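Hi V.,

Quick status before I head out on leave. The structure for the redesign project is tokenized and pasted below; the design run finished overnight.
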């Protein structure tokens, strides 16, 4: 009975040993695969970094262009505001001229050299 127990434990030990050997080989192959992946990533990292740098430059250019456009729009709004104020002033001026033209005409029958007042017709 003890001999059967010993042989069983020996077989279990050999099985675990074989399992550990296979797991070690698997992990060694897995390590080699990871090394290959690292090499491929290293090979791709330079072009990807260059592309990202270009994309960043394009984004910076777009941001500066948008900032310039915002400044131009602000200036155009100021010009439009000034033009609106000028148009309003011209309208008021034209209204004043029209109302002055519609006013009663003056009596220009008096000689230019006399100093009479129009109320009493007497010279002062």
């Amino acid at each position: 009975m003890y001999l059967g127990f010993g042989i069983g434990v020996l077989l279990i030990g050999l099985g675990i040993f074989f399992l550990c050997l296979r797991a070690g080989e698997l992990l060694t192959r897995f390590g080699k695969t990871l090394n290959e992946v690292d090499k491929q990533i290293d090979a791709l990292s330079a072009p990807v970094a260059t592309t990202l740098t270009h994309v960043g430059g394009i984004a910076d250019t777009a941001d500066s262009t948008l900032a310039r456009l915002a400044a131009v729009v602000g200036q155009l709004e100021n010009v439009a505001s000034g033009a609106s104020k000028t148009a309003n002033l011209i309208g008021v001026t034209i209204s004043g001229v029209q109302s002055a033209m519609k006013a009663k005409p003056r009596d220009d029958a008096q000689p230019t050299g006399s100093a009479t007042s129009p109320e009493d017709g007497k010279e002062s």
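Above is the designed sequence. The helical segments are 2-102.

G. will cover questions while I'm gone.

Best,
W.
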